[in-house]
Specification:
Layout: E1 9-12, E2 14-18, E3 21-25, E4 36-42, E5 48-54, E6 59-65, E7 67-76, E8 84-85, E9 91-96, E10 101-105, E11 109-115, E12 120-126, H1 130-134, E13 138-139
Antiparallel strand pairs: 1-10, 2-3, 4-12, 5-11, 5-13, 6-10, 6-12, 7-8, 7-9, 7-11
Length: 150
């Protein structure tokens, strides 16, 4: 069982195209809980990253270039010192620069991702500082549920 009742959600964003180019926006995204952000760039196709989980930290993912498949798997927290993953409850999401959305993965989940395009970039907005995150850090080997669960 996940340590939270929250579930991953997609926040709809939008695009406006005119003669000057493309404007992507997400007016529904609230930055109040964000303490930091970083960007991950994959420049080799099908680069895998994860699984990486947090009991307290939430993360928001926004793809700025290319396409990523991102998986969220609930942490089972029988003992806080050694949580496990509930693989059968994993969900996968496909995010693309061409259909802008923000994926929220709440506390109590592990996440992993891989790029579906040769070059892909994703911005990640975090609800904890780096120092806070280091005390809430659970790492697992990459789990390929991407093709096992649809």
């Amino acid at each position: 069982m996940s340590s939270t009742s929250e579930r991953p959600i997609l926040i709809e964003c939008g695009s406006h195209v005119d003669r000057r180019g493309i404007l992507n926006y997400c007016n529904a995204f609230d930055f109040k809980t964000i303490k930091r952000f970083y960007e991950i760039v994959h420049d080799t196709p099908n680069t895998k990253r994860g699984m990486h989980g947090h009991l307290l930290e939430g993360k928001y993912f926004y793809v700025t270039h290319g396409m990523f498949e991102i998986t969220a798997i609930p942490l089972t927290t029988f003992e806080k010192s050694s949580p496990c993953l509930t693989i059968s409850d994993g969900k996968k999401f496909c995010l693309s620069e061409h259909r802008p959305k923000i994926l929220y993965i709440p506390p109590g989940y592990a996440n992993g991702l891989f790029n579906l395009t040769p070059i892909a970039k994703v911005m990640i907005f975090s609800t904890l500082t780096v120092a806070e995150s280091k005390t809430d850090d659970y790492r697992f080997g990459f789990i390929d549920i991407f093709h096992e669960y649809s």
